Every structure is written in structure tokens, then in C-alpha cells.
Amino acid sequence: MTVMADIDAGPPIFRHTGRAHIRLGKGQKAVRDALIGKLDQGIYRLEEVKCLCGMTEDVVISETDRYGLPLKTVICTYCGLLRTNPRLDAGSLDGFYANEYRDLYMGADYGDMDSYFLDMAARGREALDLIRKTAPWVDLKKADVLEVGCSAGGVLFPFLEAGARVKGFDHDRRYLDYGNKREPALNLLPGGVETLEKEDCKYDIILINHVMEHLADPAGAASAARKRLKPGGLCYVSVPGLKNPAYYNSPVKSFLGSLHIGHLWHFSRLTLRRLLKDFDMLYIDDEVRAVCALSRAGRVEKDFPSEYASNMEFIRDYENAFAWKLRRARNVIRNIRHLIKLV
Ligand SMILES: [Zn+2]
User: Fold this and answer.
1) Which residues keep their CB under 5 angstroms from ion ligand 1?
2) For residue 156, how far is its CA from the centre of ligand 1 (angstroms)?
3) What is the pLDDT of residues 63-84, one digit of tens each?
4) How far does the centroid of ligand 1 lie from the alpha carbon of residue 120, in Å?
5) Residue 343 burial by CB count (10 A; 0-12/13-18/19+): exposed, middle or buried?
6) DSSP helix/strand/coil, 114
7) Residue 266 neighbours by CB under 8 Å, 6+ apart
8) How far apart are CA 278 and CA 272, in angstroms?
9) Where do the domains of the chain lie?
10) What pLDDT, on the 0 to 100 scale, is given for residue 331?
11) How far apart are the CA of 80 and the centre of ligand 1, in A?
């Protein structure tokens, strides 16, 4: 059964023009063009995927991503989750992450690793503060903390400073090497969600920071994390919130800036809550950051209202306001030029 919310879906909000929405460096343009070539030649293939709620009825929000790639983003009319559909299939996703992802995302080099590490450490401090606030009973000095998708270990660093034993998994050797050299006690190892599934160890805290939106099977990752938590253990999950313009990686803060070939899902508060339905939710906000625990009997929520209307309206209203501001700015510039000519 599909619940159609009572609003007019209208045409896609962002049409495909082939132009990038963000400024691309030479290296990024070359990677983007190589990607288009691989898609055209069938080296990378696309596949249709259902929404995480199991439904297939959706409305197209965009026909392009921020790089100008011809990829559709749709919104599920049942639960309101946005996803890339069709998206790169499993083999193509592996190829993309091995060959193009970092260079497309960061430019030809990795930029300044020191400042990247410090930015991530600031994000880790926020996570640590939130955990301290929502679960003050956790003794960090005795805690075993794991991060899945740890990159250079910056997020883990404040946990290490707080006295925890830490460990991180990531597939990117360049990040792992940097982090391990900077602080060997970060204990960063090659691996990902599949490594978590095979692990014997259990943890007091598992961090999954800006990873879920990249995964083909985020529900599988949530379930693997649950199995690896000690009794009373916590999971911290954060994703770029759909309604948080801070994550619209765009010079003009358009929602299009958050659409990116690697982002397979675009979560909002309730759609992330639905993903983490088997946990006991201690805290969740619109950024979106969640602190959840292994559920105790009777505390698991099963009914989640649809966010279709709310998400659709948010994006339309936001982009309409943005278009109006852009028109106003253009008018001001036109008037100033006219005045200068008169003088
Ligand atoms: Zn859905």
C-alpha cells in the first residue's frame, strides 16, 4: 500500500543541463568526464533500487547531481526518504570508490591533511559532548570505541584523549597511513562494514559518522553495529541532514549542492529514525545526529509518520526562496550598473 501525500509533486526541481553546479578544478572535471565516459560505455552500470521502506513509488526531485552527472534523485512517496535511483550497481560502486571518489570529492590531491584532521577532531568533540550529555553513565576511561569509516582518525582522537581504547576501519590507505603516523594509538585498520560483521570484539561505543548515506545497504550496517555492541552499548550515527543547509556543499547553498553520485540516500530526522528502528533512540536532531542504545524490551518504536510532504515542501520552499533572493541580487547589480553609467 502506498500513501500519496496530498501535495502536487510537480516537475523535477533540478533539470540536467550537463553543467556542474559547483566550481570544479581541472582534475575534478577530468574525473567527472571520465565517469560520464564509463557510464556511456557500460563500464559502470546503473541499477534500480527500492526505497529502504520497501516501496518503489517515487517522484523525481533532480535529474542531475552537483557535478553535472546525469543521475536522478527521487523521493519515496511512502516514507519521504530521498535516494539516487537508478544508482551505480555494487561492482561499479566499488570501482568508483577505488578510482574516482576522492579525486572527484576533494580535487586532485587530498588538500591539507593537517587541517582536515583538525576539522574531523572538532566533529569528534561534538560527538563526544553529545554522548556525555545523553548517556552520562558511560565511563569513557574504560570504554572500547570503534569508528566505521574513520578516514584519518580525527573523529576518534577526542575519544582517545578522553582515555578510551579506540579503533577505526577505513578503506582509504592514504588516510589510514596519515592517522597512524600522527597518533599510533588511534589503531586505524583497513576495513569497513563487512569487517564489522566478521569481528569477534564487542564495543561500548560505535561511531558511524557520515557513512550511512554512502552505503548500498545501510540497514545491514545498522544491524551489524547492533550485534557488535556490548550490553548497554551506544551507537552514534550522523548523516548530512536533508533540512540542514550547512551540508549543501554549494557556493549559493542550494540543495543541489548536497546531491552527489556517492550519496545514495538523503536522510532527514524521521527517515534516519526509521533506519535505526531496532535501537532505543536517546537523542536525534535535524542535523542529523543520533545517539541510540541497544533496545530494552518494549521501548522500540515501530510506527513512523511519513516525511514525504514535509521533505518535499521543505525543498520546494527553500529553493523558491533561494531563486527569489538570486533574482533580487541580480536586480540590485543591474541597478548599480545602470547608476554607474548615468554618473
Ligand atoms: Zn520509502
Assistant:
1) 51, 53, 55, 76, 78-79, 81
2) 32
3) 999 999 999 999 999 999 999 9
4) 31
5) exposed
6) helix
7) 73, 81, 82, 83, 213, 240, 242, 258, 259
8) 12
9) 1-109+247-270+305-332, 113-238
10) 78
11) 6
Specify the pLDDT at position 7: 54
Matching residue, cell 520546494: 316
- What is the structure's pLDDT at 4? 46
| 159: CB partners within 8 A, 6+ apart | 124, 128, 140, 143, 145, 166, 205, 207
Structural fold of domain 113-238 = Rossmann fold (3.40.50)
- Residue 284 forms beta bridges with which residues? 290
Residue the block writes with cell 553495529: 225
Q: Which residue has the cell 543547509?
A: 245
Quick: pLDDT tens for 153-192.
999 999 999 999 999 999 889 899 999 999 999 999 999 8
Q: Please enumerate in sequence order all residues whose Cβ is within 8 A of that of 298, keeping only pairs 6 or more positions apart, or say none.
A: none
Check residue 110 and give its pLDDT: 57
Which phi and psi angles does 87 have, rounded to 5°? -130, 170
